[in-house]
Amino acid sequence: MQKSSSCAASYKIPVWPKDLRENYLREGFWNDETFDQRIKDISQTYADDIALCFNNETLTYKQLYLRAVQLANKLHTFNLKKGDAVILQLPNSINYVETLFALFISGIVPVFALPSHRENEILSFARAAQAKAWIYQDTFEGETTIGLTHAVNQHLPALLQLRVSAGSTLHTSLEAHLAPAKPGVVNHPDDLVCFQLSGGTTGTPKLIPRCHRDYLCNIRSAISACDFSRKTVYLAVLPLGHNFPLACPGFIGTLFVGGRVIISDQTVPDHCFSLIKQQGVTVTSIVPPLAMVWLDAAEVCPPDITSLKTLQVGGAKMSYEAAKRVTPVLGCALQQVFGMAEGLICFTKPGDMSLRTLTTQGQPMTPADEIRVVDEEGKDVAVGEVGYLLTRGPYTIRGYYGPESLNVGKFNNEGFYRSGDLVRLTLDGDVISEGRDKDQINRGGEKIDCGELEDILLRHPNIKDAAIVGIQDDYLGEIICAFLLCDAHPPTAVALRQFLAGEGVARFKIPDRFNFPPAFDLTGVGKVSKKQLRIKLKQEYLLSIEGK
Ligand code: OOB
Fold this sequence. Notes:
Among the domains are: 31-49 and 60-211, Rossmann fold (3-Layer(aba) Sandwich); 440-547, GMP Synthetase, Chain A, domain 3 (2-Layer Sandwich). The chain is α/β, with parallel strands linked by helices. 32% of the residues lie in helices and 24% in strands. Helix 2 packs antiparallel against helix 3 (61-77). Mean pLDDT is 92; it is low at 1-8 and 176-181. The strands form seven sheets. It has a nine-stranded mixed β-sheet, sandwiched between helices. A four-stranded parallel β-sheet has the order 4-3-5-8, with helices on both faces. A four-stranded antiparallel β-sheet has the order 18-19-20-21, with no helix packed on it. Helix 17 (493-502) links the parallel strand 25 and strand 26. It has 18 helices and 26 strands.
């Protein structure tokens, strides 16, 4: 595989082969722009327009840029420089965007941790990215992060901890260290711009290297596929570091066309509906379970949200039943979004209220996206048949960041990414998600790697074997069920939850149910494979609850 050498960190970034590169440049999917240039441009073009609103605070484009530049200068006093990886773990706020833009301007590479990630995740991201620093807030959802801070410090004392006090900004938190000269960093379009996180399917979280060229292509293409413009007022509800609210087109897409971003740190319908009304929000993006909460709330007490034109729903499959309620209940159009942090993004057409929007996940957002639906042998299946999704294109990565072993089985020899999704295509070329083949649970859009959780459970002294299984759930799509083989002293579910929290596992990964079968009956399973065992346990479990 051809590699670039543009990253200061020690692994090379897998790049696109020459012919595709030339093609993407010629066709205009790629250009020579960089994030910092675009951020500077918008600060001049839309200078006095409001860029961001959060609670009672607003920031114009010019103010946002000035604050980001000042913060970038401060970051340099901590000896953070172009190419260094920094874990960015802040809750939704103006400070998030300001900090992110400062990192972009400095060429420092953010790793997009979620606020809910804990020691287990932070340590593994830090190690995988060889991160120099970790930016985090001292509280999350009212709880102090002091325990997390100590645990991270104990394992990685060299990781610089940049703590932000709740309600404050990284800027003020670093006030004591006044800035010297401007950084004067020059970013190249092939430089790494950020690390997105993969849901992971092998027990190790994978870092997704995104470079200026491909990630800007992602954002520009999403802007045009979703008709974002200066008139767009985008409500950012999901955690800002996730690819969906970040770049599809998300808050960055909105800012890049001079729109206005309203940030929310809560997802509850009352709060979000009143923001939509007060701020004239035109579009927002949420996951299916949240859409259902909003729909239920709006049915009981219809909100005044006439400004809202589009509700983007993605991250997990939205049922037809839920999809058909959106327009009658919320009065806006639904737009389904099927995407992945690795690249490929599919949208249904904005404003399309036909059956197509209710029953499909739409089409890839650029004509340069190639998708194939194949069988076990990698042969294309007929249109309409279910198969494994393969994809490549101008914003779909060609490999993960790290040792080559991470990519084994994840890319075919033509560079197509195997997403692990089962899909079928309609005659019109729309994608329909039909489930997954990967060892992952999609709990309402949050991805849980079965292998990672099993490995952590096996650290418990009374657990002999563990299998993590996704069980269908009307609300979340799937919930996490742990099947555990224990010795004579099986721990209780409460003790297990405490154990996992103590191991520093993010709360969303803690199983919803625990089951203690007497044995993992492998009869009929043939080869002892975790995957087959999981399927069998799931079948047995479903049969057992059917009989009740
Ligand atoms: C988004 O990104 P990730 O990286 O958190 O998760 C990707 C996976 C996909 O491979 C698929 O398994 C699932 O999430 N997924 C969907 C879906 N959208 C994503 N499954 C069924 N229906 C959908 N609409 O989740 C993501 C990234 C950018 C935009 C939107 C979602």
